[in-house]
Amino acid sequence: MPPLAENPLSSATATAQPSGAEPLRFLRWPALGTQCELQYVCADTMAARSFEAAVTTWVTTFEAKYSRFRPDSLVSRINAAAGLGWVEIDAEMELFLDLCNSLYGMTQGLLDVTALPLMRLWDYKAAVPRIPSTAEIATAQRLVGWKKVERRRGQVRLPEAGMAIDFGGWGKEYAVDAVAGIARDYEITCALVDFGHDIHAIGKAPGKPGWHIGLEDPTRPGVACWGSLAIANRSVASSGDYLRGFTVNGIRYGHIVDPRTGYPVAHGGRQVTVIAPHCLQAGVLSTTAFILNPAEGIRFIQESMGAEGCILTANARHQTRGFFNYVVAN
Length: 330
Fold this sequence. Notes:
- By secondary structure, this protein is of the alpha+beta class.
- It is built from eight helices and 18 strands.
- A hairpin with a 2-residue loop joins β2 and β3 (34-40).
- The longest helix is centred in the first third of the chain and has 22 residues, at 45-66.
- Mean pLDDT is 91; it is low at 1-13.
């Protein structure tokens, strides 16, 4: 299934060992273009089955409604009507669009759900990737801009043909928080929600001081970790372009595009990892900090209440003052 999220978070892996009388239950299934996983403790088997059914139903409904890769989704219907008429939306989509507005303002336009025309232009999945022309980039940039989106109660309209929205920049992180909320509704006090390495930890792993999260080494992805974290009641999200991109004439172009320039980010950053109370917050901060240069990115993370972060470049590691408190000695 094609991914909902265009920003892959492949830098965190979580492990825990069952201990004593509290064995972990596991649930794994493909959704949102990635592998979704739950580890949790629940003594009541019937309650556990009910919880798992509630989670998978919620995720299926969410993806069907908000994935731009589903031709019958609400997002696809909005995009198909660009330059034409208004599209009817429900109260939930109204809240999503309100969130888009808030995130656009918080990131000073760096997280813009209308940036899809630029993302499509830099197609790293193409059989023969190419660098778009200056004219193509300029044309795509004219279609980008959250302020262009027209809204009225119960309706939304993209006024120009070719405009499109995509919640991939934070949809998976939103889903992680929602599933963590379902776990709390079921009074589950020990769980790890891991959707493609966007993570939220509820409580601590059985018999452990926290949930252990490995941080992937961007120079050896899938092979080694450069460090690890111990978290409880926190989220972890990472952004990087070392896995997705293409090379032309010896120059590598990553998949994360800066909407200000129309070009992929190229300031030397390799990976940003953020720890925050909520996964949506962690994901928004990590993506925005990656687009900014390392010095600005660290300042941006530090200004967000409850968040800590680390930015890796080819030659250095920049981190907030409190990030070290979560690092586990290897």
